[in-house]
Write a structure and sequence with these properties.
Length: about 525
């Protein structure tokens, strides 16, 4: 039988395990152990109410029994497309408990993307919410089931309505004895989505052993313990929200997870005050609105100790505002669903916290920074980040043709990120290998120009893209979100040159935009900007 994805060798797995860099338990067992140790402690808070660890574990058993009875068999894939609500956590752990494989899809994905993922994974079931914004996920799922013979079950969190589907509530067994584990730690635990901004996301295989270690080590790096109250603001299916340290890391440490139904700072600030939230995570695009709201809110935010920011580069100026204006510690996080996580240490000086994107999580993380020819570059010089380690994948799920492009022959993952490395080992994100404007032969890193633009008075957000030009090859276009009038190109030029930027890096064109379009994981959608700019 052909293996669906490349794995580390048995020798590597044994070595990682002996050094403590892989977990010797399943993710379901992690929850079971916490329920035994802290049965009456609050595990989960959502709009549906509060669940103790004992209640959460028992409810997971009841749903697991119902899912197994459909039947859903060990090893079968189930596409889970749910927002931040109680059913997401219940479904995730119930599927893990019966040995099925959740495919974690963001609710913001379009129907065509979801169907493509369901085909690739050969999903036997699709779990959706009864509503999401203005869309009806139930109807979309029912139509998809008609086109995919292998998609046997449509399950709905909430009211299934008139479509041929079953509610998750109806699957809850009246009472269930604790179920036996149906998986091995080295088995495939779940499939994540790649965070690319173009094309259909690829499926990332994660095992119980590597994902559990990722969550545990992240919790340790972030100071998470049983007193931590984590607010899940970003989509729960996002790897950042899952294990950095996220839902899995906090539950593994016996803390409390609070599910935020939307990323609005008003909603979040109310929950921070009510639940005594100590830790939360944002992408850079959300930070300005949080800082604005902090100036006028009456909510008590004094419990918040750490704000993590990751998903893309946070500019230095905004980074330095977080401590004084939110009254908490900033921790930058640079990682990927494919594996490698980097964190700025909680006790690092401001220059490190505000000016770098962290250092590798594990002592076993191997990191290379290389030029276009694959040669290692010296510290301080930009290059592509390559990585290999105990929790980084060795190949995508059912995508061998892609593996040849994204992995070196000796198993290093080509991240596509341009970084520099300090002598102390901290990484600074310069941009993406392809996030450049090739203007008259000069390669301009978009993130560098964006950093200069954000220093222009009145500019709240900025994105730079390249558009075809008959004379330059590509011309650089800056899209700016501003508080007042959009600055002219000459004003931008004067500001950038005043900061020491090279003249050729000044955007050829400056355009105002109401808001930057975002992908499902909160990154600026430059594909849409290019389409908008060329219209």
């Amino acid at each position: 039988m052909t293996q669906d994805w490349p794995r580390p060798s048995e020798e590597e797995i044994r070595s990682y395990r002996e050094q403590g860099f892989r977990e010797d338990r399943t993710l379901s067992r992690l929850l079971r152990e916490r329920a035994a140790a802290r049965p009456g402690a609050t595990a989960l808070v959502s709009r549906s109410g509060r669940l103790t660890y004992a209640e959460l574990d028992a409810r997971v058993d009841r749903l697991a029994l119902g899912l197994a009875g459909l039947p859903i068999h060990p090893g079968e894939r189930v596409l889970v497309r749910l927002p931040n609500r109680e059913e997401y956590v219940l479904t995730l752990f119930a599927l893990l408990r019966i040995g099925a494989v959740p495919v974690l899809a963001l609710p913001s994905l379009g129907p065509a993307e979801v169907e493509s993922l369901a085909r690739t994974a050969d999903a036997c079931a699709l779990v959706v919410a009864d509503r999401h914004g203005r869309s009806d996920p139930r109807a979309e799922a029912a139509r998809m089931a008609e086109r995919l013979p292998g998609l046997r079950h449509v399950l709905v969190a909430g009211d299934p309505g008139d479509v041929p589907a079953r509610s998750l509530e109806s699957l809850l067994a009246p009472r269930a004895a604790p179920l036996d584990e149906a998986a091995d730690p080295e088995d495939l635990a779940l499939l994540l989505l790649s965070g690319g901004t173009t094309g259909t996301p690829k499926l990332i295989p994660r095992t119980h052993a590597d994902y559990g270690y990722n969550a545990r080590a992240s919790a340790e790096a972030c100071g998470v313990d049983s007193g931590t109250v984590y607010l899940a603001v970003l989509p729960a299916a996002h790897n950042f929200t899952m294990v950095s340290p996220g839902i899995v890391g906090v539950l593994g440490a016996g803390g409390t997870v609070v599910l935020c139904p939307d990323p609005s700072p008003t909603t979040a600030f109310g929950l921070i005050e009510r639940e005594g939230v100590t830790l939360t995570s944002l992408v850079p695009a959300l930070v300005p609105s949080w800082l604005d709201e902090a100036r006028r809110t009456r909510a008590d935010l004094s419990s918040l100790r750490v704000l993590q920011v990751g998903g893309s580069r946070l500019d230095d100026a905004t980074a330095r505002r977080i401590g004084p204006e939110l009254g908490c510690h900033l921790q930058q996080v640079f990682g990927m669903a494919e594996g490698l996580n980097n964190y700025t240490p909680l006790d690092a000086p401001d220059d490190v916290v505000c000016g770098t994107q962290g250092r590798p999580l594990s002592p076993a993380d191997e990191v290379l920074v290389v030029d276009e020819d694959g040669a290692t570059v010296p510290d301080g010089a930009p290059g592509e980040l390559l990585t290999r380690g105990p929790y980084t994948l060795r190949g995508y799920y059912r995508a061998r043709e892609l593996d040849a492009l994204r992995f070196t022959p000796d198993g290093f993952y080509r991240t596509g990120d341009l970084v520099t490395r300090t002598p102390a080992g901290d990484l600074v994100v310069v941009g993406r290998v392809k996030d450049q404007v090739n203007r008259a032969g000069e390669k301009i890193a978009a993130v560098e120009v964006e950093e200069h633009l954000l220093a222009v008075p009145g500019v709240r957000a900025a994105a730079v893209v390249g558009l075809p030009d008959p004379h330059l090859g590509e011309r650089s276009v800056a899209f700016l979100v501003t508080e007042g009038p959009v600055p002219s190109r000459e004003e931008v030029r004067a500001a950038m040159l005043g900061r020491g930027a090279a003249p050729f890096k000044v955007p050829d064109e400056v355009r105002g935009i109401g808001a930057l379009p975002l992908t499902g994981v909160g990154k600026v959608d430059k594909k849409r900007l290019r389409a908008h700019g060329g219209a």
